[in-house]
Amino acid sequence: MSGRPIKRSLTLRGHRTSVSLEEEFWRAFREIAEEKSIPINALAAEIDEARGVESGLASAIRLYILKHYRDRA
Q: What sections of the chain are H helices per DSSP?
């Protein structure tokens, strides 16, 4: 398990942005997008639209992933 965040680019509504997540979060994020049969950029856009202005996109993605797996338990 690696604690170092990895920066990757995403496209949200036609605009490029960089997000830094640990590899385990990137893997879970891709798995969730596959489960929903949507591109990872589309899932990121959904999360971005739902987050508050006080939280960053990377934090919102981490919380989304946590909630997703907790709801399945």
A: 23-35, 40-50, 57-72
